[in-house]
Amino acid sequence: MSAADPVDLPERTRREWRKSRRCDTASCVEVASAESGVWVRDETGSVLAFSGDAWRAFLAKACESKLTKVR
User: CA of 45: how far to CAs of 23, 54, 56, 67, in Å?
Assistant: First the structure.
């Protein structure tokens, strides 16, 4: 693992990645549960790792506001 890629490749591929049912393009992010929290990846395969607390805080803020689709 490198500092730029903190999640090793075998670990990333073993996860069950989920995409929103509302996603209608190939550009949607996917999420997967991890022991340390939640991982989010984009179509390039880049992964962001969130702690459970950080993910819950993000979801709370997202639910407070109307999110719009960026094109």
Answer: 17, 21, 23, 23
Rounded CA separation 25/19 (Å): 11
Q: Single out the residue of 27, 28, 33, 30 nearest to residue 50, CA to CA.
A: 33
67 vs 51, residue with greater confidence:
51
Domain span at residue 42 reads 9-64
In the chain, at which residue ranges do the beta strands (DSSP E only) sit?
18-19, 30-34, 37-41, 47-51
Tally of structural domains, the chain: 1
Pairwise pLDDT comparison (12 vs 39), residue with the higher score = 39
